Amino acid sequence: MALDSYQKRTFKQVGTRPNRPDGVDKVTGRAMYGADATAPGMLHAKVLRSPHAHARIVSIDTAAAEALPGVKAVVTAADFGVPEDAFLRDVQDHCMAREKALYDGHAVAAVAATTLAAAKAALKLIKVQYEVLPHVTDADEAMKPGAPVVQAGRAYENVPAGMSENVTHHCEFGHGDLDAGFAKADHIIERHFKTAATHQGYIEPNACLASVTSDGKAELWVCTQGQFFYRTLCAAILGMEASQLRVTASEIGGGFGGKTMVYMEPVALALSRKAGRPVKLVLTRDEVFRATGPTVSSSMDVKIGMTKDGRITAGQAVLRYSGGAFPNTTVDMGAQAAFAAYDLDAVRTFGWNVMTNRPKESAYRAPGAPLSIYGVESVVDELCQHFGLDPLKVRLLNAATEGTKSSYGPTFPAIGLKATLEAALAHPHYSAPLGTNQGRGVSCGFWFNFGGNTCVSLSVNTDGTVGVTEGNPDIGGSRASISLMAAEELGIPYEKIRTIVADTSSLGYNDVTDGSRVTFAVGLATIKAARDAIRKMCSRAAKIWGIDEEAVEWVDGAAVPAGPNAGKFPPMTLAEIAAVSAETGGPISGHYEVNADGAGVSFGVHLCDIEVDPETGASKVLRYTVFQDAGKAVHPSYVEGQMQGGAVQGIGWALNEEYIYGADGKLQNPGFLDYRIPVSSDLPMIDTVILEIPNPGHPYGVRGVGETGIVPPLAATANAVSRAVGVRMTELPMSPPKLLKALEAKG
Amino acid sequence: MVKVLLWGTLRSAADGQAEVEVAARTFKELLDELVARYPGLEPQIRRGVSLALDGKIYREAWFTEIGPDSEVVLMPYMTGG
């Protein structure tokens, strides 16, 4: 049974496409999302937010608000402590400004009242005296000497002395002799790129219901990607013991990394504690944009040398990421990922994090990687154009493979990049003709993936059905995938299994749903929990038969004698063993906990055809195909959905989505009317090609698929547009005004 | 002795070396030894690191055994979305 690593097998249920277990609830409106939770005596909360991009909070007078009929509690930073831990302090300060408002929309106070109208009215009665400070919202500007300092004294030890105090982190990766590498090149291209911050764009706004009782126990119902991490943060900020705070995750209407961090949940708990009543806090879309998410914005310089036959001789990237008003290290991931697709003798990436007066960055699918890879893949494409080389064949020529020393250090084990490139090269999309004003873009993508802390319980019911309890919100179809893996291992039908997502008091700690980890790690734990239950069922059968446990094995959902010497007994099914479990030793369950490693890196290749209207600058995606190594696709429909979703979000990032700040430092487009995400009518069906190259680190060969899909589209789209218009586009998004400007400059 | 590859910005804390040798049989021993010999690495190790062992990346795995010929690469702590 100890088959931890991949074992080749013929699957009976994994790889099929059964109906999703949450389908009926979601199409009938029965599913409970964050804003659906209610409680007797519940209050409604609203948050007062800074109208300034950067301001010292001189005073806050809440007396008038507190006196308003219906108002039961008002909180400010004074209602919280000051955590010693810098990370926790930043999390708290992001939820509620302490000394300074660091960005437009930063929370400065919150009210809980018997009605939403009273809460809104109370906000207007809170008097905040600000000392407005100079602000900076652009990464390049923030790095300049003399730029307004967002927070002083926050630089890590790795930042050289003498830089702007806004620079908080520096990293460098790579190997080889860059000068020698560039000297071998027949042509070198160096380009400067900029990308705008984008939001994860989840449809469901952040929402929670908090209830703290007078004896210090608390409940939090919340829309989150990780109820256990939310518990950790909220308990620490509120000064509670983890056992006294139970966090229950609602259904989740999208997160994409954005719901891996608390934004207002500690505030709702503080209000509830003060009011002694449950408090519901639901953000408006405006608040979601102004105070949650977004991604980093970037400024990058990429330099690559290539021989005339397409061999890359050296690559260098300098990345300047800004994750808003707090230190972060997302640039580490971008710097490591930038050249990961290539087998290079000389490569170097340098990363800088810069603070700006923007909201604190949150993760977004493969955080940091889409930007740097956009820069690298754009320059590779331009070099291919320069030499008249096929962009896919050039990537194949330079592709990283097993044994390649990766650009971030380790030597690659078996990876699927070449197979993915070959699949793209052979696909009819790649040879389809293009028309006028149309271009085809290609890009590789890469993401690390990881596993993480995971805990699964599996219970065998006496009627022969099985319950699986896992601790990660189902954000991408995990209940179906987990049920499929349990069914496969136990040898019973998928329909006999129900998987539920546990609250924090019902199961051991589970990491956040991120890093493309759930199907890999929770799947692994589910398989192992099923094996634990199987071992117990074999033991029960052995006792019934009066033979040794070792003489029983599990085949197709039943215990059977392991060989002719074990005795002659008919198979005893799971249902038959379960039916007599009370008589044979009591309930049967399986359990497994692990901090899983071995997730295996992932590569993807995207092809994008675009037509640009030269009169309006509008771009239309005509055809788009995603090729990705998914390891074993447990539920192929969900895998395709992840690939399609990543592509669509990346296309949005490339073409239209951006945080637009005015000269006053205020966000000008905090709504979906002005922040344009792609909708179905904007796009063709995104075609998908799943490559199933087994991950050796998982019993079924499963590999994470949730993040890699968003990495290539920025460059694939930019390369398509650049080829369509004959101008290299170096700034995202390539919105119509920017494209028109580029076309006019071209003449 | 195990050879550990450091990323660029850590090298200044390790006498400029890209690769250092430490006596360690497990990740825990390796991290402890790195901090003991190169105190300048401690802030980063405290913030979090991953370790790649023969190409496989581990985030937290103190007791992972390291062979004398293993390729060990120190990496920033992996995060995701």
TrEMBL record, chain A:
SUPFAM superfamilies: CO dehydrogenase molybdoprotein N-domain-like, Molybdenum cofactor-binding domain. The keyword Oxidoreductase applies. Residues 28-134 form the Aldehyde oxidase/xanthine dehydrogenase a/b hammerhead domain. It comes from the Bacteria. Keywords: Molybdenum, Oxidoreductase. Pfam families: Ald_Xan_dh_C (PF01315), MoCoBD_1 (PF02738), MoCoBD_2 (PF20256). InterPro entries: Ald_Oxase/Xan_DH_a/b, Ald_Oxase/Xan_DH_a/b_sf, Ald_Oxase/xanthine_DH-like, AldOxase/xan_DH_MoCoBD1, AldOxase/xan_DH_MoCoBD2, AldOxase/xan_DH_Mopterin-bd_sf. Signal peptide: none annotated. Residues 1-26 are annotated as: Disordered. This is Xanthine dehydrogenase family protein molybdopterin-binding subunit.
TrEMBL record, chain B:
It comes from the Bacteria. InterPro entries: Beta-grasp_dom_sf, Mopterin_synth/thiamin_S_b, ThiS/MoaD-like. This is MoaD/ThiS family protein.
